Amino acid sequence: MQGKQPKLLRDFLIYLTTIKGKSMRTRKEYEYDLTLFFRFLKITYEGLEIEKINEVSIHDLSIETIRDISLEDMYLFIEYCETVRHNNASARARKVATLKSFFKYLKGKRRLITDNPAEELESPKLSKKNPIYMNLEEAQLFLAGIERNHHYYRNYCMMMFFLNLGLRVSELCSLTMKSIQGNALLISGKGDKERTVYLNKACRDTLADYMKHERIKLQGPIDADYLFLSQKGTKLSRQQVARIVKKINEQSGLKKDKLTPHKLRHTSATIMYKSGADIRSLQQILGHSNISTTQIYTHIEDKEIEKVINNNPFNH
Question: Residue 187: in which H helix or E strand, if any?
Fold first, then answer.
């Protein structure tokens, strides 16, 4: 979605990263949603062809236009996203959150509007999904399936970091040599929030093997500071790591449906929780600002709940 940004939108995006501490990835998502929304409004107001929405310029967007936006306009946009763009409930919910955030900023931070039409905007109901994760036996099968090629030590170390530390894929890709601080790992998380996690023996051993057998052989790499590098010495991208996980999933014979780096994070959190980790410790390890997010990762299966009820002393 090319084109010159209106100043109001640019100011909001700067506010997101500099004040709210949002990542550049989140900022781009907000930019996409708001650009689409204002293009949709312009097409609606001016009777233009909806098929040409990506060609519409919004550089002349003014605060007067924004003050005329109604709650009905927003619902019309969400309907368009569902029926024409085929956005699922999750994607539409993100657009609702974007609109709420933008209009809250205009009213609360900039005092540019007196009424906030997005206050009453409701989010689509999301179906509750059980997170996909591996049990301990599946995780061990997954690790055993890592191909012993020239990137074996790197791939094994990365998977051990995922499964032991519950890292986000973006956090793993951003690790540098300086991130390793003795028996601890300094992680730069969402919104540049830093946290330190302890490296257990399994992580220390696989890290030492990677450094000794593979990392040291990369002479004069392009991205020398980063811990995990490609054959060419460049920083691994999230997409590259996702492909590595997908390949291991296939080669191990596990073939777990939709297994991604994020599902390895779910696996780590679930196994730690079932092994006795308390929810507050997990919140710190995973880098969640809200404990309700941690609780999503630590779902307990029905049979375990049944076992707890049956083991109640009053049941004997």
Answer: strand 184-188
| Predicted TM-score (pTM) above 0.70 | no
Distances, alpha carbon 229 to alpha carbons 88, 176, 199, 234, 236, in Å: 35, 10, 20, 5, 6
Instruction: Give the model confidence (pLDDT) of 106-135 as tens digits.
Output: 999 999 999 999 999 999 887 666 667 899
Provide the token pair at 143: 């690790």
Residue 122 neighbours by CB under 8 Å, 6+ apart: 96
What does each C-alpha distance from 275 to 134, 269, 279, 282, 295 come to in angstroms? Answer: 14, 10, 12, 12, 15
Q: What is the CATH number of domain 136-301?
A: 1.10.443.10
Known catalytic residues are 168, 190, 262, 265, 288, 297
DSSP-derived secondary structure letter, 22? -
Q: Which CATH architecture has domain 7-120?
A: Orthogonal Bundle (1.10)
Largest CA distance in the chain: 73
